[in-house]
DNA sequence: CCGTTTCTGATGTACGTAAATCAAAAATTT
DNA sequence: AAATTTTTGATTTACGTACATCAGAAACGG
């Protein structure tokens, strides 16, 4: 049987009350006694029964998710995953609030973050726009001992506790290698399509992509990045224009959202133009396009995993518990038409 | 606040004891009363607090993992993941026992399964060898109301509750497309290397691989399958022989374990022979080979996820609870040298 | 209407921890 | 050594559920 507080008390030769004071860092214990108890805890290998503790505490975790508004499927999916999590709230002792802010809007994000100051919040998860003001606002929350997790896109040099998202440099590198090898030594131009260089995930994907292209596929030339702001309509017109103006384009890497527009533009020039296309985020649209051959590979991050992981990490951090790093690593999914879920 | 048994009692106008009898299907409740209580439960949306219930019950889940012995890294890793799970046993109220049986040995597996009959076991996870005798033994356990989960390799037509592993047909198809596209329209022979056609996962991978090759890459010819029995030394000699006898081999798909031997054979013919190679299972050896360019892609299943998922499913099944299908789907990881974890 | 069976209520204990109270002991200061 | 402060012990209640016991009520058979 697993040891309990009673066993510690017996082992340390103190009372239950004292053990409780040590375990919950309450005042009123002499240093020597505290050390005696801590030694006993280590000796007999006590681990707190979190379930029992939460039961006794009647603990609930009020969590806040700050997600961008926006018409694209990925953010839609993300919001829907957070919503799903609210439905499981009862079972998990969480109380999740969703705050929506306009995409790429630094001051709105900062306002949302600052609005949480002083509120009863056990953790905050946000899709970060990578700006100094946001970093400062996050750091303010952290200094108030509120667990903060960045979701999908990370924040440079901030003190956030955790990042629940993929390694975007690796994602960009992977996209480059896939595109490069699929093109099999051909020569031509490549178009890169991004949402906004304001978010770190997009910058990093481009960085990884460019690096591998330069190192290993010198025959492929990168054209200037098109910024579609994750908006389908804008994306569509940018791509159409680029394709009609440059007949040497043989490949496209779309590293942001809004792929509905890209796919529409591609369909408009098919089957005359033969293009190898790698995009991010598996949605209804990209899935269909992958199956019908309009695109060749989809890189994906599982929003459901990211949300669940963020919740686990916020709870663990709030309790001062360690997280199982391996379990919280968000993986880059590569989908070809054969391994769709 | 979440409703409790007290709330049901009040709502249904009965006593706590009666609610308890209904909830835990104990006898001594008239049908009308039972229905009244069940209605109240639905009305106020009661959900049992599993943590509190387990606490009260002092429940522990004695689980058994049956895994093959064998020298290869994958099974090593799997056993080590199960072992890790035993370390978390205290926190998760599990009591995990590991039973090792010789690989591909049907009667040993059956004996191990039958040995569990009548024992106090809350769940069994096994790496199945796909034979009728094994299926029968599994069905015997299932009919004794013991949750059974197949791990890594599934069992045809059995009544097992769950399969914690990847879709191997999809894996084979994915390997074929990667290999086919990486070879970029070239013509030549392909060698397929398997462990044993006795296990369903290997058969299915081959099936998926052959299908896509036939459909989409007619210029690539499949040579007869080499069976390495997941043994590094045997694999090495098979591959060396094949490569020296046939100079038209331009690609290799290794769908089993024992890749240490394959890699050794490849290094022996490099850099003269240019080969595109896709293998299964990320291990220390395949990782190194991927980085140094000896192999081009690794398909992987995360043994840690599989083990953790199997545990969750066995517990949930033992409690008659539903599993979150989406969370338990084991994904096929595709690793290129750029997205290694 | 009585006796018997079947159902229901009331109550208590337990699980492992948290948190509070009050008394007693020990340490510290004066 | 007395007064004061700090530390410790003992005890109780609570969290939500499980499970057992016993008494009482309702239903049923004759």
TrEMBL record, chains A, B:
Q: Name one GO molecular function term.
A: DNA-binding transcription factor activity
Q: Which domain of life is it from?
A: Bacteria
Record keywords: Chloroplast included?
A: no
Tell me which UniProt keywords the record has, alphabetically: DNA-binding, Transcription, Transcription regulation
Enumerate the CDD domains for this protein: HTH_LacI, PBP1_sugar_binding
Q: Which Gene3D superfamilies match?
A: 3.40.50.2300, lambda repressor-like DNA-binding domains
Q: Where is the HTH lacI-type domain?
A: 3-57
Stored PANTHER family: LACI-RELATED TRANSCRIPTIONAL REPRESSOR (PTHR30146), TRANSCRIPTIONAL REGULATORY PROTEIN (PTHR30146:SF152)
Name this protein carries in UniProt: Transcriptional regulator, LacI family
Q: Which organism is it from?
A: Rhizobium freirei PRF 81
Task: Output the lineage of the source organism.
Answer: Bacteria, Pseudomonadati, Pseudomonadota, Alphaproteobacteria, Hyphomicrobiales
């Amino acid at each position: 049987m697993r040891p309990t507080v009673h066993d510690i008390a017996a082992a340390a030769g103190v009372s239950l009350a004292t053990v409780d004071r040590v375990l919950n860092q309450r005042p009123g214990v002499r240093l020597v006694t505290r050390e005696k108890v801590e030694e006993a805890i280590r000796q007999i290998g006590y681990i707190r029964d979190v379930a029992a503790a939460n039961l006794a505490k009647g603990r609930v975790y009020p969590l806040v998710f700050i997600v961008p508004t926006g018409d694209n499927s990925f953010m839609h999916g993300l919001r829907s995953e957070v919503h799903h999590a609210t439905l499981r709230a009862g079972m998990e002792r969480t109380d999740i609030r969703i705050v929506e802010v306009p995409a790429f809007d630094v001051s709105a994000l900062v306002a949302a973050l600052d609005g949480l100051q002083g509120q009863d919040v056990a953790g905050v998860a946000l899709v970060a726009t990578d700006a100094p003001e946001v970093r400062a606002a996050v750091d303010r929350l952290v200094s108030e001992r509120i667990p903060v997790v960045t979701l999908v896109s990370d924040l440079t040099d901030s003190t956030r506790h955790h990042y629940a998202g993929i390694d975007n440099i690796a994602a960009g590198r992977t996209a480059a290698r896939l595109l490069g090898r699929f093109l099999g030594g051909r020569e031509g131009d490549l178009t890169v399509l991004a949402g906004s260089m304001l978010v770190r995930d997009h910058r990093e994907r481009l960085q990884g992509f460019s690096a591998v292209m330069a190192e290993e596929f010198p025959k492929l030339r990168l054209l200037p990045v098109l910024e579609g702001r994750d908006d389908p309509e804008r994306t569509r017109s940018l791509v159409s224009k680029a394709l009609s103006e440059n007949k040497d384009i043989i490949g496209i890497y779309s590293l942001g959202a809004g792929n509905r527009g890209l796919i529409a533009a591609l369909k408009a020039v098919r089957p005359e133009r033969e293009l190898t296309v790698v995009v991010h985020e598996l949605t209804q649209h990209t899935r269909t396009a992958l199956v019908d051959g309009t695109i060749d590979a989809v890189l994906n991050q599982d929003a459901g995993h990211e949300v669940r992981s963020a919740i686990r990490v916020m709870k663990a951090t709030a309790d001062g518990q360690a997280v199982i790093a391996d379990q919280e690593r968000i993986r880059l999914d590569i989908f070809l038409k054969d391994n769709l879920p």
